Amino acid sequence: MRPGLFPESPAVDESMVPAAPTATDAAESAPALFRARALSKVYGDGPTAVRALSDVDLDIARGEFLVMLGASGSGKSTLLNLLGGLDVPSAGELWFESLCLSRADEATLTRYRREHIGFVFQFYNLIPSLTVAENVALVTDIATAPMPVDEALDRVGLLPRRDHFPAQLSGGEQQRVAIARAIAKQPAVLLCDEPTGALDYATGKRVLEVIAQVSTDLGTTVVVITHNAAMAGMADRVIRLADGRIAETRHNARRISPSELSW
Ligand code: ADP
Ligand code: MG
How many A from CA of 200 to the centre of ligand 2? Predict the structure, then answer.
């Protein structure tokens, strides 16, 4: 199930989302923002079933910048979609703070996505008939505590293009609009699935710089999927998936700016 970029429905039961942990709780146990335990995902059933994720244990700290590497088909998008509440696991547990995503119903997941998650995909999913500013406003109109549209555009360096249409922008600029749209609602988490997959080298770097800057300035927890191992240096931690499992984990002592990375 992948309900598009704006799957939000207004019919949400407020009582279904537990209160956030208090500051005292956080100080006592320093809980991870995400906790995955034995997380598994199987698509389909019978002889055509595909095991996309197998028994993944993963904690992600608030404010962490996590890069996910791995060959095509290794389960990266599956894991990202579970984190983002776009899909539910077949087995195992997944928690976002005190909210159990693995047992949440569709309305709760919708509300969770709307309040906490910004998505950036390989193809920018901008609405062609709306201007840059209008594309971002689609999100800020329904968000609880959005930043002003022009501030979001300024953060990605595109304020001067606010009244242009997507077709008048380069691929990298369109992706930066998609990032502005994703961050404008001030989500706790920014999930990026191959955000530079359709971009050339220099443009891709510029897009990564914007993502890294957002993470630093706003404290947003960021998970970026990529094929490109050279991107690993920009992360606090790099995990490599293989056959639906975490095959390797690496911690970086410091984040390297994308402008210092070469590939
Ligand atoms: P990655 O993002 O690392 O390329 P995915 O998470 O997209 O990998 O896919 C992992 C495996 O699950 C692949 O074998 C893929 O074909 C399969 N898969 C992904 N989505 C679906 C789906 N909706 N239905 C059936 N199989 C799927
Ligand atoms: Mg993928």
Answer: 19
Nearby residues for ligand 2 (ion, Cβ within 5 Å) = 76-77
4 domain-assigned: no
Ligand 1 atom with the smallest distance to the CA of 2 is 23
Q: What number of other Cβ atoms are within 10 A of residue 244's Cβ?
A: 24
- The answer to the question of residue 22 being in a domain is no
Which residues, 6 or more positions from 251, have their beta carbon under 8 angstroms from its beta carbon? 236, 237
Tell me the pLDDT tens digit for each residue of 162-182: 999 999 999 999 999 999 999
Threshold 0.85, pTM exceeds:
yes
Kind of pairing between the strands at 237-242 and 65-70: parallel
228 found inside a domain = yes
> In degrees rounded to 5, what are phi and psi of residue 207?
-65, -40
Name the residue with tokens 């947003």: 220
Ligand 2 centre from 34 Cα, in Å?
A: 20
Q: Which domain holds residue 153?
A: 61-87+114-260
Q: Is the CB of 75 under 6 A from ligand 1?
A: yes
Name the packing angle between helices 201-218 and 171-183 (round to 10°). Answer: 10
Q: Which residue has 């969770």 as its token pair? A: 112
78 lies in some domain: yes
Q: Of the residues 2, 67, 77, 81, which should be mutated to test ligand 1's pocket, given the most ligand atoms within 8 Å of the CB?
A: 77
Q: Which two tokens stand for residue 251?
A: 């911690």
Residue 42 has pLDDT above 90, yes or no: yes
Q: What is the CATH number of the domain that holds 127?
A: 3.40.50.300
Query: Rounded CA gap, 233 and 238, in Å?
Result: 8
